[in-house]
Amino acid sequence: MTKRIPVSFEFFPTKTDVGAEKLRVVHQELQLLNPEFFSVTYGAGGSTRERTLAAINDFNGKGTPVAPHLSCIGDDKARIAELLDLYKSQGIDRIVALRGDLPSGQVGLGELPYASDLVAFIRQHSGDHFHIEVAAYPEMHPQAESFDKDIQNFITKARAGANSALTQFFFNPDAYFYFVDRLQKEGIDIPVAPGIMPITNASNLIRFADGTGAEIPRWIRKQLATYGDDSASIKAFGHEVVVKLCERLIAGGAPSLHFYTMNHVEPNRQLVLDLGLA
Ligand code: FAD
């Protein structure tokens, strides 16, 4: 039997009122699974600021804690401080602190060029009020100079005051176990929650992976390719692959799982139910 560990769900802010209404329904459905928290992404440089705030307002105070993502690249300290104060006044006590990626064409790193600078700034500005989550990359951040440098940069981020981490999605559990082991050897033992990307559509998955530097193992790519447009087979195969991945992660000591929901109830709900984590 799989050990029961907490789950969290990530949303992105919607662009329309109709989208926001649909997301409220998704939130209600997923809340029935008793997650540890929901999180809402934030466009770098403040590009989704109002929409992220609106989504946070929709979900805050509805029973399950909500954690806004906050990125620092291209933003300034005053605007970030304003958001931190606002979230604190709303009773929010968890933040996902990120560097972000600037949209192409936009230049200027801003006053806080790296996530470690943002974490240090949050601690300086808000003390210990927030539980700070940061991003982790078991398969290495795509812009990192080397795996070792990436690990050292992660350690700087943890030492700046991060409480825990959420990973980029991956399909190779050994990458995660190696990453966590390396951190432990360096004396860093903050919980690192694997980020889980459900598989429902081959081309979308390949696009996300290409955009984030995550690897889709050859056997998964090949298998998906054989299904062509057969969506039912892709979903059935994807479900089996992700359940097995989660089972291995849980058996190997993952402290919790963070689901990239893509703003959908399914297959997130079914995955959590089949893993016995509801
Ligand atoms: P950092 O930790 O700053 O690392 C970025 C790169 O810089 C790495 O290669 C690192 O090795 C290197 N680095 C770090 N410090 C230094 C230093 N001092 N000197 C030289 N190099 C250094 N993006 C968004 O825009 N909005 C979101 O809401 C969002 N949510 C995310 C949620 C999760 C769980 C994850 C995994 C990613 C998310 N992202 C989001 C994407 C993220 O912003 C990008 O991956 C971004 O490129 C890196 O962000 P980071 O916080 O990991 O940056």
UniProtKB/TrEMBL annotation:
<keyword id="KW-0028">Amino-acid biosynthesis</keyword>
<dbReference type="Pfam" id="PF02219">
    <property type="entry name" value="MTHFR"/>
</dbReference>
<dbReference type="GO" id="GO:0035999">
    <property type="term" value="P:tetrahydrofolate interconversion"/>
</dbReference>
<keyword id="KW-0520">NAD</keyword>
<dbReference type="GO" id="GO:0005829">
    <property type="term" value="C:cytosol"/>
</dbReference>
<keyword id="KW-0274">FAD</keyword>
<comment type="similarity">
    <text>Belongs to the methylenetetrahydrofolate reductase family.</text>
</comment>
<dbReference type="GO" id="GO:0071949">
    <property type="term" value="F:FAD binding"/>
</dbReference>
<comment type="pathway">
    <text>One-carbon metabolism; tetrahydrofolate interconversion.</text>
</comment>
<dbReference type="InterPro" id="IPR004620">
    <property type="entry name" value="MTHF_reductase_bac"/>
</dbReference>
<comment type="pathway">
    <text>Amino-acid biosynthesis; L-methionine biosynthesis via de novo pathway.</text>
</comment>
<dbReference type="InterPro" id="IPR003171">
    <property type="entry name" value="Mehydrof_redctse-like"/>
</dbReference>
<dbReference type="GO" id="GO:0106312">
    <property type="term" value="F:methylenetetrahydrofolate reductase (NADH) activity"/>
</dbReference>
<keyword id="KW-0486">Methionine biosynthesis</keyword>
<protein>
    <recommendedName>
        <fullName>Methylenetetrahydrofolate reductase</fullName>
        <ecNumber>1.5.1.54</ecNumber>
    </recommendedName>
</protein>
<keyword id="KW-0560">Oxidoreductase</keyword>
<dbReference type="InterPro" id="IPR029041">
    <property type="entry name" value="FAD-linked_oxidoreductase-like"/>
</dbReference>
<keyword id="KW-0285">Flavoprotein</keyword>
<dbReference type="GO" id="GO:0009086">
    <property type="term" value="P:methionine biosynthetic process"/>
</dbReference>
